[in-house]
Amino acid sequence: MKKLFVFLFACITLTGWAQEPANWQGKFEQLGTTLPTPNEYRTGSGAPGPKYWQQKADYVINVELNDDNQSVTGSETITYHNNSPETLRYLWMQLDQNVIAQNSLKSQTRTNTMRDSIPAKFVAGSLDLYDFDGGFKIKSVKDANGNALPYTINQTMMRVDLPKALAPGQQYSFSVEWSYNIGDRMKDGERSGLEFFPADGNYVYTIAQFFPRMCVFDDVNGWQNKQFLGQGEFALPFGDYKVKITVPSDHIVAATGTLQNPKDVLTKTELERFEKSKTSFDKPVLIVTQAEAVQKEKSKSKNKNTWEFHANDVRDFAFASSRKFIWDAQAVKIKDKTPLAMSFYPKEGNPLWEKESTLAVKNTLEVYSRMTIDYPYPVAISVHAASIGMEYPMICFNFGRPDKNGKYTDAVRTRMIGVIVHEVGHNFFPMIINSDERQWPWMDEGINSFVQLVTELERYPNDNWTRGLPAGLVGYMKGDKSLQRPLMTNSEQIIQLGAEQYQKAATALYILRETIMGKELFDKAFKEYSERWAFKHPMPADFFRTMEDASAVDLDWFWRGWFYTTDNVDQSIDYVKWYKLRNEQTKVEKQVSAKKAEATSGKKELTDFSSGPEPISVLPTDERFYGEFLGRVDDKALIGKLQNKNIYEVKLSNKGGLVMPVIIEWTYKDGSKEIDRIPAEIWRRDESTATKVFVKDKEVVNVVLDPLKETTDINTADNVFPKRTTESKFDQFKKGSK
User: Fold this and answer.
1) How many Cβ atoms sit within 10 Å of the Cβ of residue 647?
2) What integer is the mean pLDDT of 340-346?
3) Which domains occur in the chain, in start order?
């Protein structure tokens, strides 16, 4: 038996059918212990476990916006529900406004350099030259009986010590009073603040992170109390909110939640229009017109109104306020729900905003609801603010402004639609499917950018979308590796946030859907993830495991390459050999001798098909190859299937390290084309090279890898056979003239 095996191995090797020696790098190993061990809170399937738990924080907030000195004053009562199995002796809160306090951690750790001819605005921001007293001023922290509670402020975090440990299943209520000065976003570049309009002396306020907020306490990290340094956004628990917002009486307020007292704050005409919008499904209704907003700009009321909003099952609350606001709204049909899509914008946003904003909100809700879960909230709001895209539950702040004459380019319109779709889409990731962006930005920015792309391509097919498409990522993928970080990187260590956590993650998921899994399998698995983790706190392993669990596709190689490394895609065609059967069959001994002769002949590398096909023999099967089997194959019939066929042996290399499917386009002599799609597992035994034989009816004249640019291959010059010459036409002419 040993002799038979040796003979078989020699025969197979010499006839070119053996796999080349493996170059193993572990790229197809299971993630295994790289992921957290499944437990009763988070299962191996990626679903929440039978004992999954999460905390809840309910808020009753009273806040006043002072339009005279641009400040916020507020008080809140928080009821914290300890649903964990742990006893808590203290609570942690986020003080995000402290990121712009004097001598903040962000300021202390900022790196900068000097050069000649720096614009003053950039110098001022870099060197903290603005005379601004930012950050929270905490007036008091008290228990439900009004007794002071000890607290400790550590930069952007505040620890509140409890008089008695909070046992599992218990809840605790306490209150905080605070104030802060509203930052000018034009100067500090922050997410929340004001924009001043010199022409009419008014402000647009986009107010967020305006109250001390509870940190997340979960089964994975305990307290998520990483300092806010400006880049990593927010991890927050769900809760119910009751918020009263006092503003000048001529202001219009947009906010998270449902307006409870419209009769108290709207004029009769505004109220009628507001009610009409709730049944207007075909177009927006203008509740405050541009003419009415312009009229308000001319005088500033000293009276006040208090707007009251309630919101349940949300992780945060934000609002916008201005007398400059135009306001429109339209109902959207999402199965049995009819949320209002609304936009608030100053005249400086028109005519673009009146035409496009609410429509973009509507498109986003419809596509995202199909891809994830039905939008559960009563409103979705887009607010126009300069040079920003920022999201909160039910409300977001978005850029996109025409010039002073109301003119705008296609690029301005496209970017505006893109940011609205993106920020409204954040209602789903992370406002509902509530990941931790301070630790894992790709889980909301990247996943959201992917669904954004699906929405854009579906609802705006004629616009020029690039972010998330494979071809758009090539520049980054071939860039300086020292400036790149794996997707599985803490937000504050990332250098190229947009290119990586938004674009690379979105492109990875786009490729996963379009090229690797297929839309049907991907969409079912993606929806399963969304439904499992809606109103919960998913981690990366929950996403990875669910996508595999719901699709039966082993994707560990994909997560490992795209999320844990900075490898790139660079496949190449090393050679293509063309064979045809001989008419006359020979013996095994002659075939082996011929192969040995070929191996030692010093034949130069094949670069094209000009030498024609190489004749090969397929022989009747020797009796020794059957071993103990009594049956026999029909040699004649099998050999007949290869008669007059064109047989092509293709050797491929994976130069970039990132294993991906192999997509081969064949161009035949008659001009027709065909594409073969080979799963990434072709690299599983040798991650650097792979050789595969194809049988074609027609004669091939050209072979191309990744013809539709689906894989982010960074070098397409070596994706072609016959190989391209590097000589210029002039050099070729000179050779010919000699």
Assistant:
1) 18
2) 98
3) 31-51+435-566 (1.10.390.10), 53-237 (2.60.40), 250-305+319-403 (no CATH), 570-737 (no CATH)
